[in-house]
Amino acid sequence: MKALRAHLGLVWTVTLMLKLLLFRHMVLNDYSWYGIVSDAAAVGLIMVIPACIWTGAWRKVTQTIAAVAISILWFAVAIYYSYYGNVPTYYTLSNLNQVGQIRESIASSIEPYMLLFFIDFVIVAIVLLIWRDKQEKRSIQWTISSRSIWRPRIYPMLTAVICLLVVICSLYSSRHIENSHALAKRLGVITYQLAFNQTNAMKAVQPSEEEISELRKQVQAWLESQNEPEQLLYHGAAAGSDLIAIQVEAMQNFVIGLEVNGQTITPYLNQLAAEQSLYFPHIYQQIAEGNTSDAEFMMNTGAYPSALQSTSKQLTGKLAYSLPRLLAQHGYESYTFHVNDVTFWNRNEMYPALGFNDYFDKPSFKNDEFNSWGASDEQLFKVALQNMLELERRDQPFYAHLVTVSSHHPFKIPEQYQMLNLPTELEDTQLGHYLQAIHYVDRQLERFMKELDEHGLLEKSVVAIYGDHFGLQPKDNPPEWVSEQLGIPYHETITRMNIPFFIHAPNVAGEVVEQVGGQVDMLPTVLNLLGITEKGSELIIFGSDLLNVTTNIVGARYYLPTGSFFNDEVLFIPGEGFKDGEAVSLATFEPVALTDALEKEYNYIIELMSISDRYTTLYPIRAAE
């Protein structure tokens, strides 16, 4: 037992190396030699440093703390990766204060193997407790001698080890890779954080006036390169209308028109798609780390979300050029409605940054305890309608942005609202829960739209309905199994990231618009219908009006590697660069050969998102209110 205590740091180092292999196998599914070496070098460096600085008990304490911290990090990353499919950064993990509000989703993502990250601490603790003798009981094993604090013990061998480990970490972090997924696997979790933070610090430097001017010229050149027709289709078709945007939680497009066990999943949205709205079936999510809040950001700015941290956090204290501010120039007031606490995803900072006149969050709604989020979509629509009617009585043009939450992961809604009679194979599965939740939301949307119609608001409003991001988690829903259960082709990436977009507008007949697009394209499309242009304002939109383009390309990041994009025909996903990437047909899901044209689009989309990132860093500081 004395030997165990004497070499506790070595024990932790060995078990950390074993857990490192477990992590790369179970989480990253990557066994590359350079990745393992980089990971091992970072772990070794962290465990060697205490041995160089402290002696005795201080060394044991600091190495134990380091081992626990690394294990917690891997545990947290494993859960995050299971849920989001990406390695989180330091900025992502700094949002752990939000865990309580998504505890159901987090709990459902924990798998038994993740507990192995702590098994060594349990075993060592049990061994020490069982085998300690009376002499050990009388002694204070963890006494910290003042003479041992900060006592140098940097021997030549340890110095050489540290130098070697630093060199290894530096070599592996120096290679430039746009693909953050590949970069994280190459560097490992710890070194990836250091490399990411260094990149973040470089990009966070406030640009000079000359750089700002040059950036605006680049953006203007890009805008002018878009071949916009002289006569815009639908331009001003709904001029003077109010605007209601409904962002539906986790709504994927495959549910539109879907029947299961003879039952229609979204009967009302099917009706909208068939005859009562402009329906865009080929829209793809473009959210980044901020998830739902990123979808809100794109709808209200037409810019790409941040690649560095959640955009909502980046907006702290800023003034964003946005839809609410543009509409304010035309006499509109803007309000946003969300049943969650406004501090979730830093919305208490994001909403003022976007220029909303006010927001309605958790205290504004009756908590009918629909799920862990609290109030149901029924309550959301009820409160929103009341406020819209008040604005209507004041003859005040308005923009209302509603964010639903009843169909949030893990999609378990109260039994009394589960109206579908699903086959046995789907009972108590995530797919089954998802279909029940989406069916509930569809009924609430129908009820809300009917109430708008009854109060005379529907005939004078543009209503945009869209999904914020995917719902079904890949690990719980293998595409082959989903295809078998639903009788539809389901691709693990293309179908999963395909979200629906509807626009119901006065004087606009229903039509299915086949143009491929993304979430940055929603704002310019809506503005065209309203007859409002952003030209001449500070707002720069990085998307296209889907009613007036015949070809399009939209970038994606975070859930796909940076440089991924959807064009009219394919999804392209890079490897460490273009040459080792892959293209897949949107129509057939079959591989497509790489071409020079695709490489040009790859370079274009990286530059476009880079320009968008630089543009959003130029948002000025918001004046104190």
Structure, explained:
α2 (8-28) runs parallel beside α4 (56-84), α3 runs antiparallel to α4 and α3 crosses α10. The N and C termini lie far apart (64 Å). The chain is an alpha/beta fold. A hairpin with a 7-residue loop joins β12 and β13 (564-567). Strands 1, 4, 5, 6, 7, 8, 9, 10 and 11 form a 9-stranded mixed sheet that branches. A 5-stranded antiparallel sheet has the order 12-13-14-15-16, covered by helices on one side. The chain has 2 domains: 2-203, no CATH class; 212-227 and 235-616, Alkaline Phosphatase, subunit A. It contains 21 helices and 16 strands.
* Cα-based radius of gyration, to the nearest Å: 27 Å
CATH class of the largest domain: Alpha Beta
CATH homologous superfamily classification of the largest domain? Alkaline Phosphatase, subunit A
Percentage of residues assigned to helices: 40-55%
Quaternary structure classification: single chain
Estimate the mean pLDDT confidence. 85
- By secondary-structure content and strand pairing, the structural class works out as alpha/beta
Write a short abstract of this structure.
This protein is 45% helix and 11% strand.
Q: What's the layout of helices and strands?
A:
Blueprint (H helix, E strand, L loop, with lengths): L1 H5 L1 H21 L4 H21 L2 H29 L5 H4 L9 H7 L9 H13 L2 H5 L17 H19 L5 H24 L5 H17 L16 E7 L10 E2 L2 E2 L2 H10 L1 E7 L7 H10 L9 H4 L8 H6 L4 E6 L8 H8 L3 E3 L16 H17 L4 E6 L26 H25 L6 E7 L11 H8 L11 E7 L6 E2 L4 E2 L3 H9 L22 E4 L7 E4 L2 E4 L8 E4 L5 E2 L3 H21 L9
Parallel strand pairs: 1-7, 1-8, 4-10, 4-11, 5-6, 5-7
Antiparallel strand pairs: 2-3, 4-9, 8-9, 12-13, 13-14, 14-15, 15-16
Helix pairs in contact: 2-3, 2-4, 3-4, 3-9, 3-10, 9-10, 11-21, 17-18
